[in-house]
Design brief:
- The chain is mainly alpha-helical.
- It has 2 domains: 20-87, no CATH class; 88-164, no CATH class.
- Helices cover 56% and strands 2% of the residues.
- Strand 1 (20-21) and strand 2 (24-25) form a beta hairpin.
């Protein structure tokens, strides 16, 4: 009921030699047991298993996105706003942006990008988080920061010429 993805998947005929447990077909998923336990706990009337870090919350949101669980994803985002799930600390904003970007989590990318505005973007501030950036993520974050932060006019001109 919560996932059209699984509804479609489970309605397909199963291979005759597929793994079966208690007469039901087994479907292999790539997510780890902790994430799946947390996800399933949000589907049923049991105490939810709340992830203990924003990275795990992002992974949970990504799984919801992957499995087309829009209502659960919306619920998690609302609970984050209420402070029930771990929130991102500003000192981790650069790494969080990279992780959210890698997972395609647009609202989380936007939130993390806003949080970076209070910090200088240097190799020191990026630290090991620099390794988390993939594709255009770093470029996109620089463009966001340029568009949303007041800087001296000469710096803007110089940076703008680099980004063209």
């Amino acid at each position: 009921m919560s996932s059209p993805f699984f509804d479609d998947l489970l309605s397909l005929p199963q291979p005759p030699d597929g793994e079966v447990v208690d007469g039901l077909p087994v479907v292999q998923l790539f997510e780890d047991a902790y994430l799946l336990n947390s996800l399933v706990s949000l589907l049923y009337p049991v105490p939810p298993v709340i992830p203990n870090s924003y990275e795990k919350v992002f992974a949970l949101l990504s799984a919801c996105q992957k499995y087309d669980m829009v209502s659960i994803q919306t619920y998690i985002r609302e609970e984050i706003k209420r402070g029930r799930f771990p929130v991102l600390v500003t000192t981790e904003a650069f790494r969080a942006y990279a992780i959210a970007s890698n997972m395609g989590l647009i609202p989380e990318m936007e939130n993390a990008a806003r949080l970076t505005l209070g910090h200088p973007m240097t190799f020191e501030s990026l630290g090991e988080g620099l390794r988390s950036f993939k594709g255009r993520a770093l470029y996109d974050l620089v463009r966001y920061r340029v568009a949303n932060k007041k800087r001296p006019p000469m710096f803007e001109k110089w940076l703008g010429s680099l980004l063209k």
